[in-house]
């Protein structure tokens, strides 16, 4: 009987070859997952000049650790877990990241963001409003604590489910929901402070303890 998912079959075969030390086989996995991992890393670190180096470090870690992959989760989830942990360490080491400039947002984006803050949770929004929220998240992430940045990037920018975020981060689903709620509240508070003029256009970097 033919394999109903030949790509998955090829992936499993490739992973098993890598687990036996086949470095050339790992190249296929790098090619397959480079773009999603690159996107995830960029959303987390916001450093154009360092993203590719960080991605390469992640794949090196993955190759070293691949013998421990047990196929219980998808390879994408397993690889994302390595990426998130690596980026989290990076963010903890490099707290003084770039300043976010809110004036980069257009007036239409600002209007939708204000509506989003008043209308309720992201699940109730239409497509355009979700895009506006994602734009806000992307700009605010540049100054958020590492814990908020990881949770918000996975949910709002990567579109991962709460279940998958829990699997990637090792947290309980209930904990992920609580952290998402708190991170969104902090994010919207930052935005409202800017809109009300209580802070300058160029916001200072939030410290890990704030």
Tell me what you see in this structure.
- The protein has helices spanning 6-19, 23-45, 51-65, 75-93, 107-119, 127-140, 146-157, 162-169, 173-195.
- The chain folds into 2 domains: 6-93, Orthogonal Bundle (Rna Polymerase Sigma Factor, Chain: A); 102-195, Winged helix-like DNA-binding domain superfamily/Winged helix DNA-binding domain (Arc Repressor Mutant, subunit A), CATH 1.10.10.10.
- By secondary structure, it is mainly α.
- Helix 3 crosses helix 4 (75-93) and helix 6 packs antiparallel against helix 7 (146-157).
- It starts with 5 loop residues before the first helix and ends in a 15-residue tail after the last helix.
- Helix content is 67%, strand content 0%.
- The radius of gyration is 19 Å and the shape is elongated.
- The longest helix is centred in the first third of the chain and has 23 residues, at 23-45.
Output the keywords.
210 residues, mainly alpha, Arc Repressor Mutant, subunit A
Give the CATH class of the largest domain: Mainly Alpha
Question: What is the CATH topology descriptor of the largest domain?
Answer: Arc Repressor Mutant, subunit A
The helix-and-strand class reads mainly alpha
- Counting structural domains, the number is 2
Roughly how much helix do the residues carry, as a percent range?
55-70%
What is the H-and-E element order?
HHHHHHHHH
Which architecture of the largest domain per CATH?
A: Orthogonal Bundle
Number of helices: 9
**Distance from first to last alpha carbon:** 58 Å
CATH superfamily label of the largest domain: Winged helix-like DNA-binding domain superfamily/Winged helix DNA-binding domain
| Oligomer kind | single chain
| Poorly predicted runs of 5 or more residues | 96-106, 116-122, 198-203
Based on CA atoms alone, the radius of gyration comes out at 19 Å
What's the main sheet like?
A: none
Query: Strand portion, in percent?
Result: under 5%
């Amino acid at each position: 009987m033919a394999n109903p998912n030949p790509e998955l079959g090829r992936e499993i075969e490739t992973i098993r070859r890598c687990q036996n030390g086949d470095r050339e086989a790992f190249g296929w996995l790098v090619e397959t997952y480079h773009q999603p991992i690159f996107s995830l890393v960029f959303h987390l670190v916001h450093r154009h000049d360092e993203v590719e180096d960080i991605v390469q470090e992640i794949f090196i870690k993955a190759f070293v650790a691949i013998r421990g992959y047990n196929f219980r989760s998808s390879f994408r989830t397993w690889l994302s877990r390595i990426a998130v942990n690596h980026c989290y360490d990076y963010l903890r080491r490099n707290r003084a990241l770039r300043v976010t400039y809110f004036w980069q947002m257009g007036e239409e984006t600002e209007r939708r963001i204000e509506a989003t803050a008043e209308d309720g949770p992201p699940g109730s929004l239409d497509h355009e409003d979700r895009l506006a929220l994602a734009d806000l998240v992307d700009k605010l992430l540049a100054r958020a604590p590492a814990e908020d940045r990881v949770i918000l990037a996975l949910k709002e920018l990567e579109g991962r489910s709460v279940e998958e975020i829990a699997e990637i981060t090792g947290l309980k689903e209930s904990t992920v929901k609580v952290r998402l709620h708190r991170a969104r509240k902090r994010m919207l508070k930052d935005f409202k402070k800017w809109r009300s003029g209580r802070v300058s256009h160029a916001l200072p970097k939030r410290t890990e303890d704030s």
